[in-house]
Amino acid sequence: MAQQADLHTHTKASDGTCTPTENVRLAKEAGLAAIGICDHDTIAGVAEAVEAGQRYGVDVVPGLEISSVADGQDIHVLGYFIPYEDPAFEAELEKLRETRHERNRLIIERLQQLGIPITLENVYKRKAGEGKSIGRPHIAEELIELGAVATMEEAFAKYLATGAQAYVNPPRIHPKQAIQLIKQAGGVAVLAHPGIYHDDQLVEELAVFGLDGIEVWHPDHTEEDRQRYAELANRYGLLKTGGSDFHGWRGDEPYHGELGSSNAPAETVQQLRDIAEQRRQLR
């Protein structure tokens, strides 16, 4: 079997349930050659994962997943081989997390207006530590704890998903700005799970703008999606990546995909690394 790389996983640094070390261990157990650590708007888990990768013999790709908005819809842009030890880059991410915090505050306010005794303080107690990213899954966990809903799925369907009772989406950066932020830092910008956006016109617009790659292999993509985005990537000369979007487990079920269930060929890692190295030489 050809070696594989799961280039999209999350940890406790954002809304995953496993530590960065646990993600790397699971990658080793799954027989993967490489794993991408791509938490939401934060690089807080990368250093631990890199150290674990050295111990387990797994190539760890330093990454993140930036939240952006286009035409009122959440669009996520993955950044690979980002400078995770650069204070200036971390300062830019802090600005993104401030927007995320404002969104959390507004969601909590709406939930309170609906009669649910939820507080921002109790949600944030679930995530301690500098640079960690808090979002809707943590609010969902608190809703379950309060008995307002029974499951994560119910929390999102009733309150947190697009169009639900407590959904809000304050102004965020456009995906083009996310691409620029990643590339200016010397990283590689890849559009995450385009199949869930149902907006291929935007995908092509971002490809023309300067996107480096497209996440072709993802648990939420159908076979038709995979073929369509592989063809689109080939048409624009973009890299094709893939990942499970692993967030750990909620109960007995994996949240999004099981780690290692959706991958890219291992040689994709070197392709990403080459682009990043060339980009940094030109800075």
Features:
TIM Barrel; DNA polymerase, domain 1; 2 domains; eight-stranded mixed β-sheet; 10 helices; 17% strand; PHP_dom
Element layout with pairings:
Blueprint: E1 4-9, H1 20-29, E2 34-37, H2 46-56, E3 59-70, E4 73-80, H3 87-113, H4 120-124, H5 136-146, H6 152-160, H7 175-184, E5 188-191, H8 200-209, E6 213-217, H9 223-236, E7 239-242, E8 249-250, E9 253-254, E10 264-265, H10 267-281
Parallel strand pairs: 1-2, 2-3, 5-6, 6-7
Antiparallel strand pairs: 1-10, 3-4, 4-5, 8-9
Helix pairs in contact: 1-2, 5-6
Oligomer classification: single chain
Number of strands: 10
Q: Termini separation (Å)? A: 39 Å
Sheet with most strands: strand arrangement: 7-6-5-4-3-2-1-10
Pfam family, one: PHP
Region (Disordered): 247-266
GO molecular function: 5'-3' DNA exonuclease activity; 5'-3' RNA exonuclease activity
InterPro entries: PHP_dom, PHP_domain, Pol/His_phosphatase_N, Pol/histidinol_Pase-like
Characterization of the model:
Pfam families: PHP. This is Metal-dependent phosphoesterase TrpH. By secondary structure, the protein is α/β, with parallel strands linked by helices. It folds into two domains: about 5-85 and about 180-280, TIM Barrel (Alpha-Beta Barrel), CATH 3.20.20; about 95-160, DNA polymerase, domain 1, CATH 1.10.150. Helices cover about 45% and strands about 15% of the residues. The strands form two sheets. An eight-stranded mixed beta sheet has the order 7-6-5-4-3-2-1-10. The chain has a two-stranded antiparallel sheet with strand order 8-9. Helix 8 (about 200-210) links the parallel strand 5 (about 190) and strand 6. Helix 1 packs parallel to helix 2 and helix 5 packs across helix 6. The longest helix is centred in the middle third of the chain and has 27 residues, at about 85-115. The chain starts with a strand and ends with a helix. The model has no long low-confidence stretch (mean pLDDT about 95).
